[in-house]
Amino acid sequence: DHAIRSQIEQVFFAADTDRSGTISRAELTRVLARNGVTLDEASLDAAVEELDSNGDGTIEKSESTDWFMRSPYHDALQQEYEHMEEDADAGGVSLAVPDGTRERISYFVTLPLLLAMAYTLPDCRKDKWRKWYGLQFVGSIIWIGVFSWLMVWWATVVGKVFGIPDAVMGLTLLAAGTSVPDLLTSVIVARQGEGDMAVSSSIGSNIFDVLVGLPLPWFAYALYSQGAVVVKADSLFVSILVLFLMLGAVISIVICSGWRMTKGLVEGARLQHVSALRALCGAGPAAAVRDPLIRRSRARVVEAAPVR
Description:
Layout: H1 2-15, E1 22-23, H2 25-34, H3 41-51, E2 59-60, H4 61-70, H5 72-91, H6 101-118, H7 133-162, H8 166-191, H9 195-213, H10 215-225, H11 236-256, H12 263-281, H13 286-289, H14 291-304
Antiparallel strand pairs: 1-2
């Protein structure tokens, strides 16, 4: 029911174009027209009367939710959700080659990763592995560490080949590569009605990186080497400051938008991203981002200049 109510709220907010908190007769007509439904005046009056339980001429969110929860559509949608959950729990990981050209290309590209995780991680969706969730969690963290090490190594090599500084590769290619999976998982759970989980994932991933992803390897290395770990970062203070400012800005924007995903929130998040890039690229290691590019450009000019 929580997922269904969340979906009803999304439909209601999409229909409430003037953000008045209610759906008027004109807004209901536009919603029906967008879905290819055209009603005559009598049918529209009957629909408004059925939805408007208090008779004030507008449809409130609680009224639309109560109507849907009493309607046959609720039972049909609930059965659909239950079937989806049963299929997800019983399906597990399939190594069968799918049909279709696009599906087969995607299958063979991801096959090495699929085989590595299918034979090293227990699938807790199956009954015989449900008690092994701890092993699956630890194993997943280990695989994330392996993939992260390979990704950073490959990105560094690509940067060296094309003459791109490591800082720029980290702020663009690596940042996108680590954020896209978070985006996809947040979209999936948001469509399932778990909006809180989607937002928590976007913020919690960074918290996990700072509190576990960085300290745990450093701690293991310190135990192994019996010495301190030296962190080489010219702008560590500025990076931490930007991180805290970004976190405060995210919370402030969400509060100002009324805890709803509005266009203002999206534009504010986009402005935050651009501001953070400018701050990090211009702070401390600016020589690691701008100066090498300038030096290489000057070197090319000197090489191309005729000798007198």
